[in-house]
Amino acid sequence: MKNTQTIVFVVFSIVYYFLPTAAAHPPSDSISSNATYLGNEGIMISGRDTKLLFDPFFHKDFGIYQSVPAEILIGLNKGIAPYDKIDYVFISHAHDDHFSAPSVIKYMSRHAKVRLIAPKQAVDSIVSLTNNEGILSRITSVDLAFGQEVQRIITDNIIVEAVRIAHAGWPQRKNIQNIVFRVEIKDDVTVMHLGDADSNSIHFSPYQKHWSSKITDTAFPPYWFYLSEQGKELIETTLNTKSSIGIHVPKKIPKNLVESDKVFFHLPGETAVVLEANRNQK
Ligand SMILES: [Zn+2]
User: Fold this and answer.
1) Ligand 1 centroid vs 93 CA: distance in angstroms?
2) Which of 101, 207, 109, 115 is nearest to 153 (CA)?
3) Which of 74, 78, 102, 239 is 20 to 30 A distant from 57 in Cα terms?
4) Closest C-alpha among 185, 196, 282 to residue 240
5) Cα–Cα nearest to 108, from 137, 69, 75
6) pLDDT of residue 270
């Protein structure tokens, strides 16, 4: 890892969910934040007082990607630690390997305080399935066109900044609203989830001011960023991130990813701990 003096970064091989006796985690008050891998681009960020989920509920793995194991889904739906006390759910885009409207509705109906922040395309499919005001009133729709200025959502405990960045394979799939979320947990860490962003730098350069305006502690790019020069440049320089962990990694890990020196999530339940020593420099 770069910046080893400012970030101590430990990837535990398997979370205690699968090895209850391992007790691999330090007490929660000694860590700033950690990220738990759920599957495909599903991530749980556990801050000191605030928990976020990204792309946790989906049904398709196309036989290639990691789905979220039943044990984790049960933990989320029943609110069993460490998958309890979730504050916000984010959806990057409404593709079937990232989002299932019925599963999100089911989760929100069981967890009365959870708020959802999602692109309008995902919100539209939820609205087509339910008129439950108790759920709909907790949804914030992100409706962005290409090139549109950053959308900010500020709550008591988080600052969300969203931009629309083209889906991988652009200009194919250009109609899908893929959102890159930068989320600051106040007085805690800042993370970035890129969804299925295309790694061509032309999509990111119009937002140079946005990337420069805040340091991201850990970004979660799709692994293909690590396999192109432009993608690496974005992660290492342009996006202003101190560390990154690749996601969307196929079950059969691509050889060139294995051979890269990059950190990526692969096994659901894996946890990465980010200790941030220079927070006051932000
Ligand atoms: Zn996609």
Assistant:
1) 7
2) 115
3) 239
4) 282
5) 137
6) 94
Residue range 79-96, pLDDT digits in tens? 999 999 999 999 999 999
CA atoms within 13 A on the CB side of 113: 8
Domain boundaries, the chain: 7-15+32-264
Contacts of residue 259, Cβ cutoff 8 Å, sequence gap at least 6: none
Rounded distance from Cα 271 to ligand 1 centre (Å): 24
CA of 23 to the centre of ligand 1 (A): 35
Residues with Cβ < 8 Å from 25, sequence gap 6 or more?
Answer: 12, 15, 16, 31, 34, 271, 273
CATH number for the domain formed by residue range(s) 7-15+32-264 = 3.60.15.10
The predicted pLDDT at position 76 comes to 98
Residue 165 CB neighbours (<10 A): 25
Q: Report pLDDT for 273.
A: 74
Residues of the chain where predicted confidence (pLDDT) is lower than 70: 1-32, 274-282
Per-residue b/e over 43-57, b at no fewer than 16 CB within 10 Å? bbbbbeebbbbbbbb
